[in-house]
Amino acid sequence: MKHFLSILETPTDEVIAVLNRGFELRGKQTDLLKGKTLAILFEKPSLRTRVSFEEAMYRLGGRAVVLGQSEVGLGKREAVEDVSRVLTGMVNGMCLRVFDHENLKKMAAVSTVPVINALSDLSHPAQALADAMTLAQEFTDNDVTSLKGRTVVFVGDGNNVARSLAVICGKLGMRFRISVPKQYALAPEWVEKVRAKVPGFDFASSDDPKAFLKDADAVYADTFVSMGEESEKGSKLGAFEGFQLNDELLSHCPDHTIVMHCLPAYRGTEITDSVMDGPRSRVFPQAHNRLHAQIGLLAELLG
């Protein structure tokens, strides 16, 4: 694994290796990455991603250098490729949260050290790793290869989180269902691209928020308005009326169904307090798994 830009581009056996390593190193302090440095550059705000990558490097014996966008000016103060060429000669890996996924591809194309996608407009693969760990923790005693046949239902926008979650479900043999207004559904051409690369990709979409809930092992909510879409807030919130994950919607799920959310959550919009803080919620263990997933990723990628 040279870079980690998306779940789709990462071979299934390597996804499984990362997840297994995350479970193996959970709660441990090692010197695996002693003397190695990860450069972290975020164009967007971050809580879980920044803390999890910094802490993961610390627990693996390495260090992180955090760069502000105002210092670097990715593609503005300095060409994207030039930033990559400079960092390649100084650090052992780069972790970036960007608006434009193409910038990640440009950096990876000229980099001799791993480039990690910490979120882009296209995908959020680091989140998907934590999601898979959460599901394995809940249903298979941490065995990610035994998740086959489980059903994850995503109720919300066909966004970067949904794309990455859909693909990791496909690679681990799970069914992925999404309930989303038609105008915000995952693009058919993207779905076909995944089908071509992930044999047996079990995918279905509906504009009925209750369509798939009776078969859900996990029901997943996310913000209706992603970072950078603030100008669309009014129209999007109107389109997603009825898609809030609340007690009524949850009542259509089996008793064993767990609730997930990648955070940050806009309580009272896409999810209610009673669901997010209720007995089915795994939202905060899911957030904590960001750390363990990042440990597994960095151990495999840099170690």
Question: What is the structure about, briefly put?
Answer:
The protein has 303 residues and is of the alpha/beta class. The protein contains 12 helices and 9 strands.
Strand content range: 5-15%
N- and C-termini, Cα separation: 11 Å
* Mean pLDDT value: 96
User: Do you know the CATH topology of the largest domain?
Assistant: Rossmann fold
Count of runs of 4 or more consecutive helical residues: 12
Radius of gyration (CA) equals 19 Å
Tell me how many strands there are.
Answer: 9
| Structural class computed from helices and strand pairing | alpha/beta
The H-and-E topology, N to C, reads as: HEHEHHEHEHEHEHEEHHEHH
- The spatial strand order of the largest sheet comes to 7-6-5-8-9
Globally, the shape reads: globular
Biggest pleated-sheet summary: 5 strands, parallel
CATH class call of the largest domain:
Alpha Beta
Please state the second-level CATH architecture of the largest domain: 3-Layer(aba) Sandwich
Count of structural domains: 2
- Which homologous superfamily in CATH is the superfamily of the largest domain? Aspartate/ornithine carbamoyltransferase
* Low-confidence sequence ranges: none
Helical fraction: 25-40%
